[in-house]
Design a protein that fits this description.
By secondary structure, this protein is α/β, with parallel strands linked by helices. Helices cover 38% and strands 19% of the residues. The protein is globular. Bound molecules: 1,4-dihydronicotinamide adenine dinucleotide and magnesium ion.
């Protein structure tokens, strides 16, 4: 039996409600495919910050390092400024572990209605590759003359050739495993140093991928195309900020932020990668047991795939689709009344083969061979 050691960080709010459902479904997949998981919980969160003044201990990364992967819920609490929770936990892990690819698949699933008119499952199916380590989210900068009329804030955007090329490389390879079409998000008309640099790197790398069709759009019109022509896209590569924005818009177009998964990948596998839903801690619905657990569960499928368990990953994705075909299993965000645990249980049962309902096969394409 293959065994994996997984660090579990439920975090805050609905993170603590959806993570147990993710574990339940992965355990079910383990039972079916002969995998065992050693789950080790960490209470790193805003709650911990309120008690100790830190989101995680000083040696947090060393503690996580030996694990095969990290399974995270969400962090954030209205009582703690968001930049403290983000920079105290997620960003140090993403950077410290060189998780420079943030992969966010967007797919309109059967049983989910897009807020856009007339789109059917199968027509919206793309993947956002967000640069996850540098770009606009840098901690170089500062403020002076705080609280005076002369106050000033400066924040440097950082694009390195190494950082841009490695994420582009990943995106081109991913496009090769899909419909061989890669779109680059840019803004080289307004941001005149970093974005032309990004464009140049894109063009140079495209020369190595004559089989991949490329295009690029400025981020402003690209957001409009996401809404008007979501079927135009296969793989989209974007900087940290643009990718962050597109990857909330994409899932909204596909029905609900509650179903969107993400993987923070260190493709070289020098460090553990981290799997978490796109959504946050949702304080407005936390504690009610009504959060949609699919974002977390689908992130678990991405984790299985990263660990080399493609069949188990596919089984989880199929089980998600099967459960959505049962209207009584839908949570409030997708128009139902089911509880978080009802949907989690239904997906876990579907993984082991109970409650079979016929659905159209919609197999996730494999991720590129990782370097
Ligand atoms: P959010 O994603 O937590 O919530 C946005 C809206 O979507 C809310 O109305 C919420 O109820 C709904 N929603 C989100 N996930 C859902 C689910 N699984 N099922 C049903 N409805 C769901 O984003 P928001 O409100 O901007 O941020 C709340 C907190 O989360 C903040 O502290 C923020 O910093 C943090 N955050 C953390 C992230 C992370 O841990 N990766 C990512 C985004 C936000
Ligand atoms: Mg975001």
């Amino acid at each position: 039996m293959k065994s994996f050691r997984i660090a579990v960080i439920p975090g805050d709010g609905i993170g603590k409600e959806v993570v147990p459902e993710g574990i339940r479904v992965l355990e079910a997949a383990g039972k079916r495919f002969g995998l065992s998981f050693e789950w080790r919980g960490f209470d790193w969160s805003c709650e911990r910050y309120a008690k100790t003044g830190a989101m995680m201990p000083a040696d947090g990364l060393e503690q996580l390092r030996p694990f095969d992967a990290i399974f995270l819920g969400a962090v954030g609490d209205p009582a703690i400024p968001d930049h403290l929770s983000l920079w105290g936990l997620l960003i140090p892990i993403r950077r410290g572990f060189r998780q420079y690819v943030n992969l966010r698949p967007v797919r309109l699933l059967p049983g989910i209605e897009s807020p856009l008119k007339n789109w059917q499952p199968g027509q919206i199916d793309f993947a956002i590759v967000r640069e996850n380590n540098e770009g606009e989210y840098s901690n170089i900068g500062g403020r002076i003359y705080q609280g005076t009329p002369d106050e000033m804030a400066v924040q440097q955007t950082i694009f390195t050739r190494r950082g841009v090329e490695r994420v582009l490389h990943y995106a081109f390879e991913l496009a090769r495993t899909r419909k061989k079409h890669l779109t680059s998000a840019t803004k080289s008309n307004g941001i005149i140093y970093t974005m032309p640099f990004w464009d140049e790197c894109f063009e140079q790398m495209a020369a190595n991928y004559p089989d991949v069709r490329i295009d690029q759009f400025h981020i402003d019109i690209l957001t409009a195309h996401f809404v008007r022509h979501p079927d135009w896209f296969d793989v989209i590569v974007a900087s940290n900020l643009f990718g962050d924005i597109l990857s909330d818009l994409g899932p909204a177009v596909a029905g609900s932020i509650g179903i969107a998964p993400s993987a923070n990948l260190n493709p070289e596998r020098e460090f553990p990668s981290m799997f978490e839903p796109v959504h946050g801690s949702a304080p407005d619905i936390a504690g009610k047991g009504i959060a949609n657990p699919i974002g977390q569960i689908w992130s678990g499928a991405m984790m299985l795939r990263h660990l080399g368990e493609e069949d188990a990953a596919h089984a989880v994705e199929t089980a998600i689709a099967e459960s959505l075909a049962r209207p009584e299993m839908r949570t409030a965000d997708i128009g139902g009344t089911a509880k978080t645990s009802d949907l989690g249980e239904a997906i876990a049962s579907a993984v082991v083969g109970k409650n079979k309902v016929h659905v159209v096969e919609n197999r996730e394409r494999a991720q590129p061979a990782e370097r």
